[in-house]
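Hey, resending since the last one bounced:
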Amino acid sequence: MTIGERTLLFNICVIIFNIVLGLCIEGFLVFSCFFFMQGFSKEVQQSIPVTVVLPFILLLGFFACVAISRRFVTWAIDRFNLRDKLDQNLLKRYPKTL
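The structure tokens again:
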């Protein structure tokens, strides 16, 4: 396999990982917020509209997914010694950890 083919395969794996990770984090945050809101009284539940809270939860989940994914992919590149096997332009996005 050439470096370009390995980089393409690596990018496809990272995309699939990001989709699965994002769905898991977003689902966890939405369900945990739902159960957290169940602990409040009815008046408090009705005073906080879901249309206001949900975008902030989704934005928080997005940032968490990006941070976790970047650290995990950097770890995987270092752990499996992929720095010499992938395109250098790709590796600029994932700097080597100390």
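DSSP finds four helices and no strands in the chain.

Sorry for the duplicate.
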